[in-house]
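Budget justification note: compute hours in this period were largely spent on complex prediction jobs such as the one shown. Inputs:
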Amino acid sequence: MTSRFGRIIWTLFGAATVLFMLSPLFLLVLFSFGRNELASFPMRGLTFDWYRALFAKADFWVALENSAYICLAVGVTSVLVGNLAAFAFAGLRPRRAAPALAAIAMPLMMPPLVLALALFSTYSALGFSLSIATVVPGQVVFIQPFVILVIYSRMASFDTTILDSARDLGASPIKAFLTVTLPIISPTVIGAALIAMALSLDEFIITYYTIGGGLTLPTLIWGLLRRSLDPSVNALATLILVTTVGSTILAIRATRYRG
Amino acid sequence: MPRHPLVVALFALPATLIFLLFFVGPFAYFAVMSFWSVSSYRISREFTFVNYLDVYREYFYSLGFTFAIALAIAILTTVIAFAFAYLIRFRAGRWGPALLFITLITMFGGYLVKIYAWRTILGTTGILNTGLLELGIISEPLPWLLYNPGAVVTTLTHFLLPFSVLPIYGSLRSISDAQLAAARDLGARPARTLFDIVLPQCELGLVVAFMLAFFIAAGDYITPRLVGGTSTAMVGNFVENQFITALDAPQSSALAVAILLISAGTILGLRSILHRALAVR
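Corresponding output:
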């Protein structure tokens, strides 16, 4: 009796939470194909007009190019740096690795506005001119913790005896790394790279303050939102959504991440 | 894996340098700035406490409001996140992996995109209002859905929920089913099992989830601006305003430091309350 009642409550709660999490994103995608100027019911049929309007904007292509450069630079840097750090932490005892991980994850807790203003003030005090190059380190500092945590948790379950066997059989440390460690962890590394790139593509506040007027896809959205009603925002938002969610799905498959 | 301390240090060096140069350094500089002042648009580097006096005199109400709204968001997010993580771990059975997958993919998809989505849903001519009109449930659009604190709470809870589910789920995963079965066999009611076995073991996950939600909510300025309306200005808006419009970086910095200190104090306080509440009786 109670257990059936409990099951109904849990099912309702689960369904409501999933609906809450997914419906805004679903509606956004749906209305990017809607003929209506405003996202509102009833929908007056489907169209690709907003995508056409978006692709006709010169700004879109500039923003896409900048976003692509930043995304690649941030992805490569944070994976290289994060991978090394994850290896270093995996070499420590868990008791000592935990505070190191907590420290390096601090930028995640910092409100992005504060980090953005701090970086902006520092760059201007040092006389740096802002460009897409100044965006990259600001993004890496809060994206690298994700990479480190994902790869570290993979390394924690890594069977080190097989490395010892390789070394005992005469492999150099580098050869053991290339032929044993790398093939085992490479799906995780690829997954971490995709997560890093998804986060970079999404990032708005730090980018906005450290790019010095240049455009990326999120700063383009911000501009469109502030100007006037422009349904091509729906199309642009959908493109970002599909890219980041798509790469996350690939990343989850690659890393077999289970929480 | 590197064992030699020198190799460990060498491997950790690049990440540490980035952390120091682009996080610790800039933040320290920004925080020091809060003791400087601005006169006729020039920064004077003499030590003063005036910015903090102004924080107290002019932004006391706004700090309190931000604190209340961030607390509401963090509590709501942590409670829903705990229930959902509990559902995934113990109740959902074969649906568990699918629910976890949905949580992971909604983590991404964009901060700005999500705020924008809520604005188009809640507006007077938005999806919810026009949908309800179309269905004949309401005869006039409900104007109070958007531009109020409730819209800010909804939007930020939606954004923060997946980030809070994951750490809690991480702690729940390490609780063994055997312990729960033992508690049940010894006659513990579900509530007793929850308070004496489940909650104490996921204390860390709860604290991380709450902390993340509280800090991000307390420092946000875009959500209040886009869905909060004119009466819902949070401290983040004044931090931005002082920096960009008033060109008073020291005042902006003092406000930012104040909100961070208040957040940290709140979290330490709540953590000790939680710790005492969950201590095994």
